Amino acid sequence: MSTIPLEHTHLSEDWHPARRGIVGMWALIVAESAMFTIFVVAYIYYIGKSDFGPTPRQVLHVPVLGTVCLLSSSLFIWLAERQFEHLRGAAFKLFWGITCLLAAVFLVDTAREWHELIYRDGLTMRTNLFGTTFYSLVGLHAAHVTVGLIMLSIVWIFSLANRVRPEHATKLQALSMYWHFVDAVWVVVFSVVYVAGR
Amino acid sequence: MVLYLLLVYAIVRYRARASDGNIEPPQVFGSVEIELSWTIIPVLIIIVLFLTTAGVIFALQDAPKPANALDITVIGHQFWWEYRYPQFGIVTANELHIPASDPQHPRPTFMKLTSADVDHSFWIPQLAGKTDILPNRVNELWIDPHVPGRYEGQCSMLCGVQHAKMLLVAYVDPPEKFDAWVRQQQQAASNAAAVEAGRQVFEHVSCINCHTVRGTQANGQFGPDLTHLMTRSTIASGAVPNTAENLKQWVANPDDFKPGVLMPNMHLTAEQLNQVTAYLTSLE
Amino acid sequence: MNTKNQFAESAATVTEPLEGAHDLTVLPPEKVTWLEHLHGWIVTVDHKRIGILYILYGVLFLLVGGLEAVLIRIQLFRPLNNFVSPQSYNRLFTLHGTTMVFLVGMPILFGFGNYLIPLMIGARDMAFPRLNAFSFWISAFAGFLLYYSLVGGVGLAGAGSAPDVGWFAYAPLTEPAFSPGHSTDYWTVSLLLNGIGSIGTAVNIIATVFCMRCKGMTLMRMPLLPWLYATMSTLVLLAISPLTAAQIMLMADRYLGAHFFDSQAGGSAVLWFHFFWIFGHPEVYVLVLPAFAFANEIVPTFSRKAIFGYPAMVVASVAIAFISLGVWAHHMFTVGMTSVSNAFFTLSTMLVSIPTGIKLFNWLATMWGGRIRFEMPMLFTTAFLFQWVVAGLTGIILSVSPFDWQVHFSYFLVAHFHYVLVGAIVFMIFAAFYYWYPKATGRMLNQRLGKLHFWLMVIGFHMTFDVMFFVGLLGMPRQIYTYMPDRPWTVLNQIVSIGGVVQALAVLVFAANLFYSWFRGEEAGPDPWDAWTLEWATNSPPPVYNFATEPEVASRRPLWDLKHPEDPDFAYE
Prior knowledge:
- Chain B is α+β, with helices and mostly antiparallel strands.
- Chain B has helices at residues 2-13, 32-61, 175-186, 196-204, 244-252, 270-281; strands spanning 70-77, 80-85, 90-93, 95-99, 109-115, 120-122, 131-133, 139-143, 149-154, 167-173, 234-235, 240-241.
- Chain B starts with a helix and ends with a helix.
- Chain C has 16 helices and no strands.
- The longest helix of chain C has 35 residues, at 86-120.
- Chains B and C meet through helix 1, helix 2 and strand 9 of B and helix 4, helix 8, helix 9, helix 10 and helix 11 of C.
């Protein structure tokens, strides 16, 4: 332990703290996970407890199109990031654009599903416990998808104007972490609402 | 205690003195053995404390119910208590009667508690711990009182503006007295001709929409059952003594005793007030 | 190059600009109009200014919340008193609790964190300065919104539409059927906004602690204060979000016709209990961990010894946070959970006492063998140590569910949590003020006013809260606007009330000291306490950039190494 200065110098040369954008996004993901957990718990608690009104089995149909689109959008955003690493601008714009498109299709599919539930099946938030918990959980998720889509679109527009540069890599990574999180939440919501709860 | 002594000792013994000058004391950074010892010893203390506590929890909560137990259903309202005795077909309000239990031949009272509106909590300290009263949920509490007497308590969960005056009065009666009380409660309301005018006021000025007087047309559920009102020592769930004066003032303007209570002022004339008070005081 | 000398140079030149450099970040005073000065404070992203803004905001609401407490105590001075109406009383205690937790505790503690963390880790600012400013201003708006409720609705007489459902707003009392009008909405929305601010600050603290430490400062060389703040921030992320979720559900019930807590449609009151306390219990640890952080810095400095058992303190603090996530239903022992659930939560609550005890023992061991100087920060910390023992032990007593079945929701409980919130947290906040006010302002707080503040506080605190335990044991429930004269509570309530007034005086003396010392306090210099962490290696107040060159550290006490080159810490760590 006598040559502390040398060890100390050695340490300071290798000083690479974590990137704050990434740590910050992880922290946000932790907070959002806690919030979603509460809505999922409420959903599960009230399964089967509605005294009247439509039940999940009667009105829910598995949203295949939306789910496939959303989950594959994770793949495409990953591909886009890889292209970005290799500085292939055109491929990056393509894959990133496809990600945005898939997200938009998911939202449209959700809107279509809700339109049917409201006007054909008469299920709204105030109908019964199922309505309350369904719309709030799926709606909260859809709101997060919407915010994500807006952010993704902004990046895409900037990329079309050739203003997205290699030094923005960390910001892109943080945004794509958020996107993967939103998809992971969908896996949980999907399993609870459309599989286990029906 | 030990901790306090150690703290006081440290403060006195290790106080900086002028004679120390500016010398720093020996710097001690830690000791694994000491850390372990003051981790393990508390763990052992906690284990003992927990096992004892768990024993009490299970003994109290999961106590088996004997066949001769008395059943009472307690329903909390804003800001009064409803008591139903399903075994006797009685409904009463605000003052609870339960039989004293003989330790040799126990006759405990088993209560089911629920709420008609918001959260309340049933607490008579000298009889039992408190149990919350929640809507859409039935909680259970048992009491096994040995000593007859009058016991007081009050609602113990904020339920609105008159939470403070949602008081509890419980009479633990010796068994014969309890049986006599049950029999009296089972009778229909007294129907004296002298208070006919008051009964008419009661029936026509919509008192019957909220209150029940068994044996008459009055069968409202929103307010307390008044069939044997005069057997109670207090009114307004314990807020004031049950006298004719207080009854009159209560009916004239409930807000005088419990501002914000849900019983409205019916704006009776002075004559109607006298008549209905006479009627109420006849309900024994 | 000898790294130690390099650091020594940094410390020596930190008060002077580097040769040829001109600091353009702050205009010289004579060039700034008061409007520009005010503007500077409003648009600032500097962590020190934001920290001070949080603290001033918190102190303002401390006075307001304290006034509410005094009004409550006046009403309870006599049975069947009518100093305030029942409706106003219910609003008073709701506002008192909500204010003290959300508008005083959180802001003051976030303020200290904001101010100190970058300085202690040798950084220039927090990780996200603009997020920092946003978090403050949204919290400030939330406080304004909550108090706007006093004049919204029917106006001040009868306290407008201020919320009256208790600081935990149990459903279904908060459902539209039982709380018409907007009072509950003010509670819900303002706390929702406040929560967003808190989550922002928590994200900021975590990113700062993990990413912005100066060279050589590994996590195990970081002072304990940033460690505890990072732990507390993780708790904020995990605990505030459930409250936000529950509040969104409540607003959905109130305005979108949802039925989360609507008992008429099968909704459950118990669900609100769970969601609220999943937030509520970790929240008190969010408040107490910074108090522990202050003790972790103050006890060593004034005992003249390094903290005993640094690694154990880290582990214990993280363990406290972790266990505290699993104890929430000890607030629900009377709700009618199964015996197994009650037993589980009894056990988990008892377990949290173990790491807490370790911290206490470590503080004692730090003092043991030291040369304790009882300056103002240490006076308050010593009171804290004694009071914490009572707070913790009464917590253990309450965790015994059969005992809790008697004293839950009584004044015994109120005494316990005020022992934690006032006896521990507020006392340590005072200690922190006396310790770091010189750093932030360059002036010492007045000693005589300080001693008066201390003794008034100790006397008032014990008069109120020691007696309050007995009122609770005699059966007085909480949140009642009056009590019957035949209960044996009157005299005890009177003593409690007088103690409350004494504490109010103490706080006024303190506020006066803050103000007075700003103008007339003794000059402090960079290191008035002869301490060992990095914030004392720069000016008082620090320049806007904190350190002229980035410090490099080799141990947990960089200034000790500097002051004692013959016996540096890094020889032992």
